[in-house]
From TrEMBL:
Domain Enoyl reductase (ER): 20-338
An example Gene Ontology molecular-function term: metal ion binding
Cofactor: Zn(2+)
Claim: Metal-binding is one of the keywords in the record: yes
Classification via InterPro entries: ADH-like_C, ADH-like_N, ER, GroES-like_sf, NAD(P)-bd_dom_sf
Protein name: GroES-like protein
GO cellular component assignments: cytoplasm
Keywords assigned by UniProt, alphabetized: Metal-binding, Oxidoreductase, Zinc
Pfam families according to UniProt: ADH_N, ADH_zinc_N
Assigned protein family: Belongs to the zinc-containing alcohol dehydrogenase family.
Amino acid sequence: MTSSNHPESYTAYAFTEKGGELSRVTVPWKDPKDGQVVVKVIACGVCGSDEQVPKAIYPIQYPRIPGHEIIGDVVAIPPNETKWKVGDRIGGGWHGGHCHECARCRVGDYITCENAAINGISMDGGYAEYATLRIEAAVRVPKDMDPYEAAPLLCAGITVFNSLRHMNVTSPEVVAVQGIGGLGHIALQIARRMGFRTVALSSSGSKKALAHELGAHEYIDSSKVDQAEELQKLGGAKVIMCTAPNAKVMEGLLPGLAVDGTLLLLALEDAPITISPLSMLGKRLSIRGWVCGHAVDSEDMLQFARDHDVGVMVSKFPLDKAQEAYEHRASARFRVVIVPDLP
C-alpha cells in the first residue's frame, strides 16, 4: 500500500440503530483493498436523503456512517492502483460503485446498476475524518474549487444539472424551478447558465430578490397568482423542475407546461400525485423522475459549475456537531456541510 501518514483509528459519527441519533464512534484504520482508495475528508454535505439511514428505507447494516457528498484528498491507495495517487482531490456522491456486469452496466448506465453501492447507505460515508471510496465511482475534483461548495454539488448539483441536460428543451425555451431551497437555488443558476428563460416558482415573495440574483428572469408567487396560469402567459414551461417536496403543488403545476413539456420530479416526496391522464394527452405531456449521475456526469457538472460560477450557499458545522448539522438539513435555508477540521 502507498500512503501518507495515517492514524491507527479515527473519529466518525454513525447511526447505530434504527430510529436512533448519531453517535460518536472510533473506527480502526483499514488499508484500502484493490478497487478502493482512502481519503481524508475535507467536507461532507448533509442531504435530506441521509435520513434513509435511521429510517432504514434501504436495508441498513448498523452501525452506518452516513454522508454521500464527500470531498477529500487521497491518503492511501492499494499497490496496484493506477488511476488515483496520494494527494489527488476526489469526491464521492450518491453513486458509490457499480458491478460492471448487469444489463444496465453493460450499456454504460451505471447509475441504474442492479447491484449499485451507495455511499453512506450500503457502505460507510463521509461523516468522518476519513472515508473509503470505490475507484470506479470516485470523482476528480479541481483543487481550485471551494471544497465546501463543491460537496453539495455531488448530490444536489448533479441531480439538477444531469436531469436538465437530458430533457427535451432548447434555449431560449422556458424552464421553471419550483422551490428555492437546497436544490432549487442551484437549479436556478444552472438553468440560466444553460441559456433557458428561467422562472422561479415560490410560495411567497420572500425570496424574490434572491431568485433574481441567482438568475431568474421571472418570479411567480403562488400566494398572489395561479402559477400554472402565469406560466401559460409566458408560453408555457418546457420543463418544470420540482425541487421542493409538496405533492399538491407539483400536480397543480401540470397545466403550466407547454406542448411536449415535462414535469421533472427531483424532490424526495413519498406522497402520491393525482393526475388525470386526459390532462396529459392533448399536449403530449410527460412526467419524469431523475436520480443524480455517475462519476463522469459529476465531473461534467463540476466543470460546468466552475466555468459558469455556479455557487452553493452553505452553513458549516464541525464534525463533533454532526447531530446538530443533521437536524439542520430541513430547516437550513440551503445546504449544510460538515467540515472535520473546522474549529
